[in-house]
Write a structure and sequence with these properties.
Blueprint (H helix, E strand, L loop, with lengths): L9 H7 L5 H16 L1 H4 L18 E2 L10 E6 L17 H4 L7 E3 L5 E3 L2 E6 L5 E6 L13 H11 L13 E8 L2 E6 L3 H7 L10 H6 L12 E7 L3 E6 L13 E6 L3 H9 L5 E4 L4 H6 L3 E15 L9 H10 L2 H9 L3 E3 L26 H10 L6 E7 L2 H15 L4 E7 L1 H10 L5 E6 L6 H8 L13 H12 L3 H17 L4 E13 L3 E2 L1 E3 L5 E2 L4 E2 L3
Parallel strand pairs: 2-11, 2-12, 15-16, 15-17
Antiparallel strand pairs: 1-20, 3-4, 5-6, 6-8, 7-8, 9-10, 10-11, 12-18, 13-17, 13-18, 14-18, 19-22, 20-21
Helix pairs in contact: 10-12, 16-17
Organism: Antricoccus suffuscus
Keywords: Signal
GO molecular function, one term: peptide transmembrane transporter activity
Amino acid sequence: MSECADDSTGSFASTYSRKVPISMRHRFRFTAALLATGLLVAGCGDAPKKATKATDEYPTSIDLKKGFDPNANFTYGYVQYASSWDPIESVTGGDFTFFAPVYDRLLQQDEDGKVEPMLATAFTPAADLASMTLKLREGLTFSDGTPFDATAVQFNLDRARAKNSKISGELYQITSVEVVDPLTVKINVNGGLGSLATGLTGRAGMMVSPAAAQAGIIQTEPVGAGAYVTTEIVPGDHVSYKKTDGYWEPGAQKVATMTYKLITDDNTRYNALMAGELDGASLNPDQLASAEKEGLAVITKPSAIFVYLALNTSKGQLGDPEVRKALNMAIDRKAISVGMYDGHCTPQIQPFPETSPGYSKKIGDGLDVFPYDPKAAKKILEEKGVKDLEITSVSPNVTIYTKFGEVIQAQLKEVGITVNVKSVPAAQVVQDFSIDKSVEATSSVFTGINDPDALSGRYLQPKALFNPGGAEYPELMKYAAEGAAVLDPAERSKAYEKMMDAWVDSPPHMLPVCMVHLAAAFQTNVSGVSQTASGAADLRDVAVAKK
C-alpha cells in the first residue's frame, strides 16, 4: 500500500519515518493482508460488527492537574497545515487546529457541543427568529492594538459572507449585520437561525483585525484576538506561538509557548510522540491500543466528522441518482470501519452522528437501505448502460485518507469501475475537485462545524464549494431549510428526518461511509485536554508539568 504522495514534513519526518513500533507494523500488515485477500475490499460477508475495544472504553478528556509549569512549551503534531491564515480563505475544517490559538471566536462549543459565550458574552434570538443579538466583551483589542467592538464584528461577518469568501456558505442565512452600539451587534437572517449560533463557533466566527485584513497581510500573518500570537511560521512545517499580553482570559494561557508541527504520516507522528519529540499528537483510531500500551495518555470520542466519496455530477453518468445508489451499494462500510479504523468509525449511510438533530432514528445506520451488495450494484450499472467507467479521485495526502481512497478504488473495481487515485495536500483536493473541477471524485473527510446545516452550506446547495457539478436537490434543501430555521432540537429532528427520507429516495453526490471517532495521545505530564464532539482536540486549557 503506497504512502502519501507528498511528504512535506522535512527532516523531522525522516528522523522517525522508519521507527515503526512492532504493534503498529502488525496493524499495517493486517490491513495489507485484508486488501490482498479481498476481505477488506470485498467483505466476504464475515467482517466483525465492532472493534475489539470500543471507543467508550477510552476517556474523552484528561482533567487539569495541579502543579503544571506556567513557563512550559507544548509541542503538538497534527495531520495537516493551515490552507491559509485568513479564515475566509480556509478550504478545510482541519485548519481549525492551527487557527484556534490566534483567533478567538464569537462563540465556542464545550466538549459535548453545547454553544457557549467567547468574545460575545451573550447571544439572544429574537422571538420571531428573524435576528440574533450579540453582546460583546468590553475593552478588548486585537493583537495589533485595533479595538474589538461591534464595528469590527460587522466588518468580519460581512467579509465572511461576501461572494469571494470560501466560507460564505456557513453564513448564508445572514441578510445584514447592524451595529446597535459599540458592544452590541444585531444579525438579521432569512431563516437558518437554528444553525447560526453553531456556525459562529467555527471559522465564520473567528475575528481578525480589520486593520490587518485591509492591509492584506492576513493570508500569511494571523492577527486575531486569541490567547496566543505567532512568533515563527514555517509554511508546511511548523508554527510557534507565545502568550498574548493582556489577554482577557489568562486562565487559558497555561503554557508560555506552543509549537504545532505538520506531520501527515500516521507512523511518523506516532513515533515522534513515542520518542518524546512531541507532547501530544492526533492519532488514527487504530493506534489507540498501541499508544495506551506504551504508556501514553489517550483520548477519543465519536465525532461529527466522517469519511465519504463525493462525485462531480456533471461528469458523465455520475449525475444519475440510480448510478449513485449503485455506488452506495458497492461500498463495504463495515469492512472499512474494522479494517482501517479498528472499529472506531461507525459505518452508516447518514452524514450525521447519532447525537445530532439531523440523525434519522428511522433510518439508523442505513446498512439495510444501501446494503453492501456488489452484485446488485453491478446489475444497476449494467441497466443504466455504465460500462468501462474510469474516473479520477483525489484524496488528502494524510496516511489514513490515502488508504481510504485506495480501498474505495479496490471496492469500486469489483463492480467494474476504474478509479485512478491521486494523493495531494488537502488544499489541492479542493482546488482539483471543487474549483478547477478537473477530476470526477474525491474520497475525503468532512470536517465542518457540528451542526447538520453545515452540510447544506458546503455540499448540497447548487453553488456549494463541494458541489462542483451544481447538482440541485430541491426536496432535500426544502427540509434542510426547515431544520435550520428552528431552535428546538426536537422540531429540527422532524425536518431532518424528512430530509434523510429524500436522501435515500434520490441519493446525492456525497456518499458517507463511516463516522470517525477522532483520537489523540499525550505524554503523561500533559493535562487539561479533551476530545470534542466537533472532532478537533480542545487544547485551549492544555497544561504541561515538569518531568
